[in-house]
């Protein structure tokens, strides 16, 4: 066997310093996007139910279990997410950890499938492969999609679909190489997982069949996959509970559908260009233009793959499959959301649809990079690397801004948990809308309280009166800020919102519990730690200790001194105390906060 080292050295010597610098910059950008996205989930991933998930949990307690697991939820059939949610309730006290971790694993797995495929593309130079890796990471982990990424329940809707479609695309490519119907069957089974993950999941079959068509898989090998598709559709629309809800959501309006598809495909541009502050009509027009360009690019890519005699590479097949998933999903959105898009056309740019259009942009980019195949030439990666780095730079602003948005939503989610624990109906943070009506929200909270799940896992101090004992004072630079007073319509009492922050040198236990007591040691409220929503600092490379806090004082008394006790929940002992006084005129202001000795 010949020694490969001389060839490696020759390639290394032939790479110019500029090419080496470009390679380093591309790899660094890939790392930065992936790392900051994962850290954003670690810092701001939602730890408690949020929005429509209160309604979903309420349905688990009001419907037969079979309906809750396999039934329709907002015109979708999210069986995979329901099964995971059920397991989390059964074994993890509904603490959101299983959903959040699996969501991150599935999203990261999608990116890893693309990255590994790029690394194995031998016809590309290292620079082109690095560019493809950066595109893969941005396609999945760009924080424009943070709404789906940092919410475990939402992540389990969409990322089983993206991963299944990517695997199905590779399975179709393998079916061509190995002339085996077994690979098409495996791809169809992956698509079945996608189908029962979300309403758009059946679009994964578009990825499987588009790749099979372009790589010329023999028609006989299609038959098992087509049979599986037919069975899935029958199950989804006819045999499983709630099938009337599926059929009733579909409407056919070619003009509305076409406009919706184009706008959905153009939504990454609109979302990334939010700082341009496009007006309603300008945004709609810009979205149509961007979507038309993407749609034309997709058609051109498919025609190139079908007409070109040279077979597609694995990376090219994956790119077309991923793009086909997004295009088919946009078509399903246009088919099932006719009335909504007629009333509010800008809904096509909603972040809940952005995952699918991002797949189209990323998939087409991977397909384009796969065409730069001149083995042994370092030049075939320069244009892809420059293009990928340019896209990374343009998306970096929205990547940062969406980390700030995630920080703010995380804080709201934390506050909602305190309101639920204290049986306070705070209309700012507990849902009472189409996502979850008040009756559903309260029913879910009461069911959680009975079972000591989620926000009720931690127990309050067993002997609150003992908390009047001397407690080390919080550092003087810590502060308390008073919010608004409002009437709680749940507990029929007056409540005041409080927030603030601990100083950097304040000790924070691993399991903190924040209790508000008066001078006699009687409990008058609670608070919770969270990262304050400083948008400029939300995009981070580390996971700092949360030092901001938000909570409530129940039945506040003017000119009364209170103490916010930071308690180690494991030891049930106070760690530090922060004193504050409610002034005669209560409102948004800094309370009198001082050390307690």
From TrEMBL:
Q: Does Transmembrane helix count among this protein's keywords?
A: yes
Domain of life according to the entry: Bacteria
Q: Coiled coil: which residue ranges?
A: none
Q: Where are the transmembrane segments?
A: 98-119, 131-150, 156-175, 187-213, 219-240, 252-270, 282-303, 315-333, 353-372
Key word Nucleotidyltransferase present in the record? Answer: no
Keyword list (alphabetical) reads: Membrane, Transmembrane, Transmembrane helix
User: Know the name of this protein?
Assistant: Transmembrane protein
Q: Which species is this record about? A: Tahibacter amnicola
């Amino acid at each position: 066997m010949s020694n490969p080292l001389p060839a490696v050295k020759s390639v290394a010597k032939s790479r110019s310093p500029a090419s080496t610098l470009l390679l380093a910059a591309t790899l660094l950008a890939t790392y930065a996007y992936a790392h900051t996205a994962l850290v954003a989930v670690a810092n701001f991933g939602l730890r408690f139910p949020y929005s429509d998930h209160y309604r979903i949990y309420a349905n688990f307690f009001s419907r037969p279990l079979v309906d809750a697991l396999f039934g329709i939820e907002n015109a979708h059939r999210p069986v995979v997410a329901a099964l995971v949610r059920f397991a989390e309730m059964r074994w993890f006290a509904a603490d959101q950890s299983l959903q959040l971790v699996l969501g991150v694993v599935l999203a990261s797995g999608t990116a890893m499938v693309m990255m590994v495929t790029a690394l194995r593309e031998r016809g590309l130079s290292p620079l082109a492969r690095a560019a493809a890796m950066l595109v893969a990471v941005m396609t999945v982990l760009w924080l424009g999609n943070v709404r789906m990424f940092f919410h475990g329940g939402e992540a389990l809707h969409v990322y089983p679909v993206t991963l299944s479609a990517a695997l199905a695309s590779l399975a179709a490519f393998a079916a061509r190489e190995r002339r085996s119907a077994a690979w098409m069957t495996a791809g169809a089974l992956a698509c079945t997982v996608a189908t029962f993950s979300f309403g758009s999941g059946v679009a994964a079959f578009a990825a499987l069949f588009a790749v099979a068509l372009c790589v010329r898989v023999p028609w006989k090998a299609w038959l098992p996959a087509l049979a599986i598709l037919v069975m899935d559709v029958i199950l989804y629309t006819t045999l499983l509970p709630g099938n009337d809800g599926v059929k009733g959501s579909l409407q056919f309006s070619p003009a509305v559908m076409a406009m919706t598809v184009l706008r959905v495909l153009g939504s990454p541009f609109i979302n990334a260009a939010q700082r341009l502050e496009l007006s309603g009509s300008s945004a709609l027009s810009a979205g149509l233009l961007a979507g038309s360009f993407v749609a034309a690019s997709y058609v051109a890519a498919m025609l190139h793959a079908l007409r070109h005699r040279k077979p597609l590479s694995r990376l090219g097949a994956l790119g077309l499959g991923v793009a086909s998933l997004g295009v088919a999903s946009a078509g399903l959105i246009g088919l099932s959301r006719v009335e909504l898009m007629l009333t509010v056309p800008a809904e096509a740019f909603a972040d809940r649809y952005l995952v699918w259009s991002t797949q189209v942009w990323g998939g087409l980019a991977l397909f384009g990079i796969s065409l730069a195949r001149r083995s042994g030439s370092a030049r075939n990666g320069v244009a892809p690397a420059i293009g990928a780095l340019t896209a990374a730079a343009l998306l970096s602003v929205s990547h940062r801004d969406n980390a700030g948005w995630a920080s703010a939503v995380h804080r709201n989610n934390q506050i909602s948990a305190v309101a639920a624990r204290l049986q306070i109906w705070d209309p700012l943070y507990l849902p009472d809308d189409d996502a979850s009506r008040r009756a559903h929200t309260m029913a879910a909270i009461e069911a959680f309280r009975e079972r000591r799940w989620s926000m009720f896992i931690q127990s309050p101090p067993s002997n609150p009166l003992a908390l009047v004992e001397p407690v080390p004072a919080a550092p003087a630079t810590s502060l308390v800020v008073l919010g608004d007073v409002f009437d709680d319509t749940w507990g029929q009492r007056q409540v005041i919102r409080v927030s603030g922050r601990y100083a950097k040198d304040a000790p924070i236990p691993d399991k903190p519990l924040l209790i508000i007591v008066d001078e006699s040691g009687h409990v008058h409220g609670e608070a919770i730690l969270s990262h304050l929503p400083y948008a400029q600092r939300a995009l981070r490379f580390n996971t700092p200790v949360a030092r901001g806090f938000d909570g409530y004082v129940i039945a506040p008394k003017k000119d009364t001194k209170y103490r916010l006790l930071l308690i180690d929940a494991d030891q049930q002992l106070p760690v530090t105390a922060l004193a504050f006084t409610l002034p005669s005129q209560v409102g948004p202001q800094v309370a009198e906060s001082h050390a307690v000795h």
